[in-house]
Amino acid sequence: WIASDTEGVWEKLLGVFGERRTRIGFYLLEPGAFLQARGRGIFYVLGGEGVAGDSVYRRESTIYLDSGEELGLTAETESTVLLMGMPCFARAARSTARPSSRARAAA
Questions:
Q1: Which end of the chain has fewer CB atoms at under 10 Å, N or C?
Q2: H helix or E strand, kind and range, residue 48
Q3: Largest pairwise CA distance in the chain
C-alpha cells in the first residue's frame, strides 16, 4: 500500500493496461477518510461501510462513474474498494491512424 495525497487513503495500483489506459487497483480508507472518486470506472466495495454522495455504501456496493463524473466517499469503518478503470475512448477518436515509421523518423 502507498499513501495517497489524502490523509487516511491508501492506494495499491495493480496495473495499467494498453493504450486505452484500462487500470485496476485498490483503495483502503481508514475510518473518517474521504476519497474523491473520479473518472470512468467501477468502484466495488470489498468491505467496510460509509457514505457515497448522499447514499450509504457497504460490502458489495457498486458505483459506476462515467468520464467527467466525481463522487465523494467518506468511510465510517475501514473500507477496501476495488477500482476497475474502464478504457478511455476519447483519445481514440482524436488519433485514429498511427503515424508511419517514415513520418516518425522525419520528425
A1: C
A2: none
A3: 57
- Cα angle value 96/98/99 (rounded, 5°): 130
C-alpha cell at 96: 485514429
Quick: pLDDT tens for 14-70.
Answer: 998 887 778 999 999 999 999 999 989 999 999 999 999 999 999 999 999 998 999
Please name the amino acid found at residue 62.
T
Place of cell 486505452: 20
Q: Which amino acid is at 56?
A: V
What CA–CA distance (Å, rounded) separates 50 from 29?
A: 10
Q: Nine-digit cell at 75?
A: 468511510
Query: Are the beta carbons of 10 and 28 closer than 8 angstroms?
Result: yes
**Total Cβ atoms within 10 A of residue 38:** 13
